[in-house]
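Encode chain A's predicted structure.
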Amino acid sequence: MNKRLENSLILIWTISLLATLGSLYFSEIRGYEPCTLCWYQRILMYPIILISGVALFQKNARIALTLAVFSIVGGGISLYHYGLQKLSFLSDSVPACGNVPCTGMYINIFGFITIPFLALVAFTIILITSLFMIKWQKETK
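Encoded structure for chain A:
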């Protein structure tokens, strides 16, 4: 595995670790109870740490497609969740989703940065990096 692919895996591992630590900070230290959609995003983000960590250890860049799939699904959920929070035509028709409403915003920095937005940014960086990894692997064949 070349240095570019290795650095990409390090970036993916770092981003997923930061996203995981951020979500744990919000829930365990700040006491924000995650809504149902937040849990789904966590379910897709947390394994990326293990998958990318093992791939890095094994020097296996072929895992990029798996990472891309996780990030597409997680990013889709994050985008939908963000839309529920910010778009009135979506938030008006949302059924109750557990103890915490999915339209609630624990943080709203600069009027647009919410927890699902942060997750969307992380999933997007992971997806873009994974796609570059796939492209670079095809170039070396």
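The chain has a mean pLDDT of 94.
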